[in-house]
């Protein structure tokens, strides 16, 4: 239905020629914009319902007051997956975890997963690549957060936290209060949840339009074979090169997924394209700058280096199984 509407609007109302680069680009823009906004809104509502009954305070108390035998990494990664944050907006909550005394490895599990897997990425992935690839991506993103957090936790990196954080941790006391669930009927919460979902859509709308606009331009105007020359499946170093080039960049899922869609359409292996996307949304120079408040540069380097290695490995695995 969305494709028929886009065809009617672009080729029927606007009168553009479907065989031209402009017509193809404009059609791509309207189709992807409508499809992604609809998916994003409904998935944001679902995530809002989950967040309403599983708030941050409860998670923090749960992780600090129980022995979970390693499951804390799963819970932290899962919480990262259901929070709609990019890498930079995840950092204030990450700092709160560190200040609150939550183990460093667990906080890393959250920080790794949060920008990679969220309702924005899921909505756009379902609309772009389908359910199978979306499921594989979500599971692997959560596993990346769990494994990365576990390894970083075992490396005993607490001495490389900043002096500011160490002082706060020494002066902090455990929160012994209990979390009381607000017994608000679901249908009274739903309008608020829908408003928040629409707020998420509005908050990323500009990025979506810019990302889809770039993707539409590439879809209509970039010559066939341009990307294949540098990121083709025949180039063994395509995955690590894509990740290394992506790390200095910064974008969220709303801005990069439409670009990745065009990469794949142009013949780039999906694993290489996904590795590029994960590096763009999960590692960035603005994120490193914000992390400097709580970490030394040595710890930031260890974190970035390990996650870069994991993303490269995932890129190769994606190319094998997808």
Tell me about this structure.
The chain has helices at residues 2-13, 21-52, 56-65, 71-81, 87-99, 104-116, 119-129, 131-154, 163-171, 186-221, 228-231, 238-246, 253-265, 270-282, 285-291, 297-321. The relative contact order is 0.13. The two termini are 27 Å apart. The protein is globular and about 70 Å long. Helix content is 75%, strand content 0%. Helix 8 runs antiparallel to helix 16 (297-321). It is an all-alpha fold and 322 residues long. It has 16 helices and no strands. Residues 173-181 have low confidence and may be disordered.
Oligomer: single chain
Decide which structural class fits the backbone. Answer: mainly alpha
Total beta strands: 0
Count of DSSP-assigned helices: 16
């Amino acid at each position: 239905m969305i494709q028929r509407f886009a065809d009617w609007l672009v080729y029927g109302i606007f009168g553009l020629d479907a065989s031209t680069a402009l017509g193809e680009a404009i059609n791509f823009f309207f189709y992807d914009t409508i499809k992604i906004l609809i998916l994003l809104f409904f998935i944001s509502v679902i995530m809002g319902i989950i967040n309403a009954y599983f708030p941050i305070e409860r998670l923090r108390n749960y992780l600090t007051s129980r022995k979970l035998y390693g499951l804390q990494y799963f819970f932290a990664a899962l919480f990262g997956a259901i929070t709609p944050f990019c890498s930079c907006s995840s950092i204030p909550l990450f700092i709160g975890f560190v200040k609150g005394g939550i183990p460093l490895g667990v906080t890393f599990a959250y920080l790794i997963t949060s920008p990679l897997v969220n309702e924005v990425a899921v909505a756009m992935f379902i609309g772009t690549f389908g359910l199978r690839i979306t499921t594989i991506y979500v599971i692997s993103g959560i596993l990346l957060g769990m494994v990365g957090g576990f390894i970083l936790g075992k490396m005993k990196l607490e001495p490389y936290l900043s002096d500011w954080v160490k002082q706060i941790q020494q002066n902090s006391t455990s929160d012994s209060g209990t979390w009381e669930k607000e017994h608000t009927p679901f249908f009274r919460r739903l309008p608020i949840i829908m408003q928040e979902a629409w707020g998420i859509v509005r908050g990323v709308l500009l990025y979506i339009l810019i990302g889809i606009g770039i993707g539409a331009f590439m879809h209509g105007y970039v010559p066939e074979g341009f990307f294949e020359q540098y990121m083709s499946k025949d180039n063994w170093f395509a995955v690590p090169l894509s990740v290394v080039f992506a790390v200095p960049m910064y974008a969220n899922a709303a801005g990069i997924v439409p670009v990745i869609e065009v990469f794949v359409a142009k013949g780039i292996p999906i694993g290489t394209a996904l590795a590029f996307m994960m590096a763009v949304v999960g590692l960035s120079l603005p994120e490193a700058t914000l992390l400097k408040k709580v970490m030394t540069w040595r710890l930031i380097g260890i974190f970035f280096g390990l996650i870069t290695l994991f993303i490269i490995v995932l890129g190769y695995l994606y190319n094998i199984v997808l």
